[in-house]
Amino acid sequence: MKKIEAIIKPFKLDDVREALGEIGVTGMTVSEVKGFGRQKGHTELYRGAEYMVDFLPKVKLEIVIATEDVERCVNAILETAQTGKIGDGKIFITDVERIIRIRTGEENQAAI
Fold it and tell me: pLDDT tens for residues 42-90?
C-alpha cells in the first residue's frame, strides 16, 4: 500500500477529484495549506500599500491506495493539475505499513 500526498493549486481541486473518481479512487483527505517553493511568494497591493505574501494558498490531497494503482493515480493527478506554470505543486509517494478502520477493525486492503 502507498500514500500519495499531492500539493496542488486550489482551483484544480474539483478537476483532480473528478479524475481520481473516474479511475476508482473512493476516498481522500483534503486540507487547505499554505507554502512556497520556487515561487517565493509575491507582492500585492492593499489599500494603497504594497505588501509581501510569503505563503501561497495550496490544497493538499492525501490518498492511500494499493501499490498497483499508484501509477494510474499519479497520472490522473498530473494530467489534471498541471498548468505548465510555476507553482503547480508536487506529488510525494510513501509506503504505508498498516491501516486499521476504526469502526470495524478491518485492516490493510480491507480498510482502504
Answer: 666 667 776 666 778 899 999 999 999 999 999 999 999 999 888 889 9
53, three cell numbers: 505574501
> Which among 88, 83, 66, 72 has a CA at the least distance from the CA of 6?
88
Give the orientation angle of helix 13-22 with respect to helix 70-81, to 10 degrees: 150
Nearest 5 degrees, angle CA 76-CA 14-CA 34? 95
**Distances in whole angstroms, Cα of residue 75 to Cα of each of 34, 43, 53, 80, 109:** 24, 33, 31, 9, 22
Prediction pTM value: 0.83
CA distance to 36, 46, 103, per residue, from 64 (Å): 25, 41, 18
What backbone phi and psi angles, to 5 degrees, belong to 45? -110, 125
Q: Please name the residue that has the C-alpha cell 500599500.
A: 49
Element housing 4 (H / E) = strand 2-8
